[in-house]
Design brief:
Mean pLDDT of chain A: 92
Structural class of chain B: mainly alpha
Shape of chain A: globular
Strand order of the largest sheet of chain A: 6-7-8-3-9-10
Number of strands of chain A: 12
Helix content of chain B: over 70%
Largest sheet of chain A: 6 strands, mixed
Oligomer: heterodimer
Order of helices and strands of chain A: EEEHEEHEHHHEHEHEEHHEE
Largest sheet of chain B: 2 strands, antiparallel
Mean pLDDT of chain B: 84
Distance between the termini of chain B: 48 Å
């Protein structure tokens, strides 16, 4: 599989603060990489750099082997979709209209014919079909997050950058969202997802990147990365790494 | 169990019904507005010191464009009165109403805030300052185009100021927006006062009355300026309608969807300033039209901008033509300034909107 995102020695500094410190990370098409780490470790900043929102102070980012600065906004929109951490919608647009906005990059192309199908599929995958006629502003936090995910899926891109897609979700929908992400990856998409639940990351991600104060503390397959000593150092709380009967690691704090 | 199953089966059906409702709503509203507009135009042309019958209004209109009918007015006086006084005034009210309503809708789109309005945030007073300077300076600026140009310059200045002062991190908080509006209004108001202070008495009188807002004495060459500017800037707004929808997701997300936010912003600021400047230059300050009309349309047709702009265009024209008719005829022998009238209605409406916004956001400090 080819490399979708290549982050090469990237640093982001604002004033005196170093948010991301010389991070290198390649994400390939067909895999899910989970970004984990404590609050303020630089996960969202790194995701912003990969999305092209932020210009790194040092280092370079390439998207399908072309420097991200060489892409224009529309090309990027057809290549990758981004789910931000908080999702506002000004004015009371209906859920269907919001999801349909995800089709905007394809307007005027041959893919425009797929609009209805893409929107319907995306809404089914995010389990928001029953909310279609509700206004976005009337939804609960979890419902908003799922509608925003549907918007991102409707964009039908080869790369997905998801910033805490499971934060406001109940148990079932957390699993559903990550199953959708996995299905996307199996279909060839590159998926980068910021998560807080390490067990969830272990169950669904192909690789986990652990961030610690702007640097990459560890990167690799869940089984290799989730080491109790390293996690205790990064998070500042003692943890136990257990084995689920199916073989995936489970991380729980020592209480 | 059966209830749940029934409810589930019902859900898609009611959703489909909802879509059906939405589908006939827009044409019905637009048709109703068009009807109100035509009625208003005929009424406004017919009612006044000289009463003209409906048939005569239509007859004169046809005669003017070269079609002779039996409905043509009996006397030349009536014909001249209609074509030189009433018709240009009606046409001006349509153009000004449409311009202000579209300007309001565009402004709300780029601020992502239903309280943004040219009058409230000070764009109108900025334009007024420009126009007042044009009146008092005389010479080249005193003409029709000079006033429009100066009003435009003032409008652009005020819009830019508000835009960059009131936004932080891609969002506009209500409080910041309104406080910025207060500051801009105060400054522009002081500027106009200074201009009045240094102007001669003729210029003073002209500025004072013009500032109250009136469509009195509209001439065809002025109508042509306002109408053509409204047409051009309005067309640009319509072309951008889908992009304004995306902007509702926030600047960052809109950017992720391929929108060039910065460029859209700059174009929109020019659109708002042209529309407001055109309206203010000849009709004075007529506030709240850009607030009330888009809001009412949004409540009926939803926030999608294509319909919102179409509804605002018609709604603004309707509101203005009827308000002008009322302003002309409510008090016998005198004419109410139309700006006074719209503020009288718009002020309380603004209070209500403000309270609603406040309760939605859980209050603000």
């Amino acid at each position: 599989m080819s490399v979708a995102f290549s982050v090469d020695e990237v640093s982001v500094r604002i004033g005196d603060a170093t948010l991301v410190d010389r991070v290198s990370l390649d994400v390939e098409h067909g895999e899910i990489v989970a970004l984990v780490g404590p609050n303020g470790a630089g996960k969202s900043t790194l995701l912003g750099v990969m999305a092209g929102d932020r210009t790194p102070s040092e280092g370079r980012v390439t998207c399908d082997e072309r420097a991200i600065t060489q892409w224009n906004a529309l090309e990027l929109a057809r290549h990758r979709a981004v789910l931000p951490q908080d999702n506002h919608v000004a004015f009371s647009f209906r859920v269907r209209e919001v999801v349909d906005m995800g089709r905007a990059p394809w307007r005027g192309t041959a893919d425009e014919e797929d609009d209805d199908a893409a929107v319907a599929t995306a809404m089914a995958e995010a389990d928001v079909t029953h909310l279609a006629e509700r206004t976005f502003t009337s939804l609960s936090g979890g419902e908003r997050a799922r509608v925003s995910l549907a918007r991102v899926l409707a964009q039908r891109t080869q790369a997905l950058l998801l910033d805490e897609p499971t934060a406001a979700l109940d148990l079932k929908h957390q699993e559903d969202v990550l199953k959708v992400a996995r299905a996307q990856a199996r279909a060839g998409a590159a998926v980068v997802v910021v998560l807080h639940d390490l067990s969830l990351a272990a169950a669904y991600a192909d690789r986990i990147a652990v961030m610690e104060r702007g640097t990459l503390a560890a990167l690799g397959a869940p089984r290799d990365v989730l080491d109790a000593h390293m996690l205790e150092r990064v998070y500042g709380v003692p943890v136990r790494v257990l084995d689920d009967p199916d073989g995936t690691p489970i991380v729980v704090p020592v209480r | 169990m059966t209830d749940v199953a029934a409810a589930k089966a019902d859900a898609p059906a009611s959703a489909a019904a909802g879509r059906q409702r939405g589908r006939w709503r827009a044409p019905v509203l637009l048709a109703a507005l068009t009807l109100l507009l035509v009625l208003g135009m005929i009424a406004s042309a017919g009612v006044g010191q000289l009463t003209v019958s409906v048939t005569e209004v239509i007859g004169a209109l046809l005669q003017g464009i070269g079609v002779d009918t039996s409905w043509a007015p009996a006397t030349d006086v009536t014909y001249q009165a209609l074509w030189q006084i009433r018709f240009p005034r009606v046409a001006m009210s349509l153009a000004v109403g449409a311009a202000l309503a579209i300007a309001g809708a565009v402004m709300q789109a780029i601020f992502g805030n239903p309280l943004a309005e040219p009058g409230v945030v000070g764009v109108s007073s900025g334009a007024a300052l420009g126009a007042a300077l044009a009146i008092v300076s005389g010479g080249v600026f005193a003409g029709v185009f000079g006033m429009a140009a100066m009003a435009f310059v003032g409008g652009v200045g005020a819009t830019l100021l508000v835009y960059f002062m009131a936004r932080s991190q891609g969002r506009t908080e209500v409080v910041t927006l309104l406080l910025t509006g207060i500051a801009v209004n105060a400054f522009a108001g002081a500027g106009v006062a200074l201009v009045i202070f240094i102007g001669d008495s003729a210029a003073r009188e002209q500025i004072v009355f013009w500032q109250l807002g009136s469509l009195n004495g509209s001439r065809w060459n002025e109508v042509a300026v306002v109408a053509s500017l409204t047409l051009v800037a309005g067309s640009v707004a319509f072309a951008l309608a889908r992009r304004y929808d995306l902007l509702a997701l926030g600047e960052r997300t809109a950017g992720h969807l391929g929108l060039r936010v910065e460029r859209l912003r700059v174009i929109s600021i020019i659109v708002v300033a042209v529309l407001t400047g055109a309206a203010v230059a000849f009709a004075g300050i007529i506030a709240f039209v850009g607030l009330v009309v888009p809001h009412a349309v949004r409540m009926m047709l939803g926030p999608a901008h294509k319909m919102l702009l179409a509804g605002s265009l018609l709604g603004g024209a309707v509101l203005m033509v009827w308000a002008d008719l009322f302003a002309r005829t409510a008090v016998t022998g005198a004419e109410l300034p139309i700006g006074l009238l719209t503020s009288l209605i718009g002020g309380p409406f603004f209070f209500w909107l403000l309270r609603r916004a406040r309760s939605r956001q859980g209050g603000w400090a």
